[in-house]
Amino acid sequence: MNKAITVASGVGSAESENTSLLSDTEFLESLRRQMHKFATLQLSDSHLAEDAVQEALIGALKNAKSFAGRAALKTWVFAILKNKIADTLRQKQRMAEASNLMHDEEEEEDFSELFDKKGFWQADERPATWGNPEGAMHEGDFWRVFQACLENLPGHQARVFMMREFIELDSDEICAAVGITVSNLNVMLHRSRIRLRECLENQWFAKGERPC
Amino acid sequence: MLNCKNVTRLYSESQERQLTLQERMSLKMHVMMCSGCRNFGKQMVTLRQAARAYAKGADERADKKDK
Fold first, then answer.
1. Model pTM?
2. CB atoms within 10 A of CB A135
3. Is the confidence metric ipTM above 0.90 for this complex?
């Protein structure tokens, strides 16, 4: 972000670009959606999520003058949102409601169910061909399965997966935000993808395509 | 030679960084013989597409279409 601010102050046309950023409703709406999906899965509550996202967006847009472009604004909004979520979770924890939000105890795992001792697929775990993934993405039921699979991921894995794929932050940004190394991150992303893949295959693709 | 577990790790990392030439060659050799990993590789691409579509509201659009 520091880099972005430096760039903004060094470029003469930065002012006009900032103005267009604020009036770019399509970008802002899609940013709001991405953040809301992330916050909802973190907080398990759509309304709390909406509040957190609104606050984060307003907070960031107040300072919109400092941003060189979309990527910088997104990073900033996300940084604020992350803090809001942490605050909300802490409040929830105080109310002793947070016990079911974390799945940390499952974090240490091996994949002996999936792979044999030599690291090859167990016969019944070998990934199958997925019929028509593009078609699935037009079906509401597929997305309900998708969401359930995400919610089944261990907490830390879900968080970094969503930072990578929902918010589209790059590896360095995620490592800095979460305080982990790139190799930690790669391990977590690998596990989350293996799990998600398996869940989607078992819960959707192996069950056969549904009639439209 | 790579085993399937290593291959899935490389496919996952290929979503984060450009694999080295050697990594790409070893992957290619492995998936020529292994349909499970071949499917896995395609599914990693699908997973990213799906996650990004979901984050941008594809589920809400699908529900609207159903009604």
1. 0.73
2. 12
3. yes
